[in-house]
Description:
By secondary structure, the chain is mainly α. It has two domains: 79 residues, no CATH class; 94 residues, Arc Repressor Mutant, subunit A (Orthogonal Bundle), CATH 1.10.10. Helix content is 60%, strand content 7%. It has a three-stranded antiparallel sheet. It is elongated and about 90 Å long. The model has no long low-confidence stretch (mean pLDDT 87).
Amino acid sequence: MMMMLRKEKKIVRLSDEAKSLWFDMVNDIEMKMRPEGIYFQAKDHMSKVPEMTVRVAAVMHCMDNSPDEPISVSTFIEAMNITSYCSGQFMKVFCAPPKYITDAENLKQWLNGFVNSGFRYIKRNDLLQRGPTGARLKKEFEPAYEYLKSIVPIVEFKWGRTRVVDLKPHELHDEYKLNKDMTLFFTYCQSTEV
């Protein structure tokens, strides 16, 4: 008859410095799991990351050290790097941002091209008609545009019957530039095939 021997379990502890870093990580993750936080869509996964990090650190520690010694801060940082990378991959695959955020980022890049070309003012309707492909339908444009306004300083105003977007609202209003941009924009779009 064969007898199985059980090994005595050892408790591995974090050093004080590693423990402090672990608490910082927990607080950072909890803050980012709030609404509008980057981990809001992945709360189930992210709530487990601190525990997974400690487990990875314990395995790494026991490979080279006695379990009686506390886990060093450098080992804990290595474990954080591993779990952070894996969580990032998880987020890319399973927690892609909502479409309106992706559309807003595309719209922001599109507008940056015009600002870099010297334009400050653009008709709101041109954003919808000539903007990036993902935001040309009104039902997709509106949420993307509203989100964009919350992250980028842009101001909308009426110019006659036209709604105009000022891409540099921190500068003084420039009526001459407004007239010039409204005149040149259509020609610019045709020449660059936007």
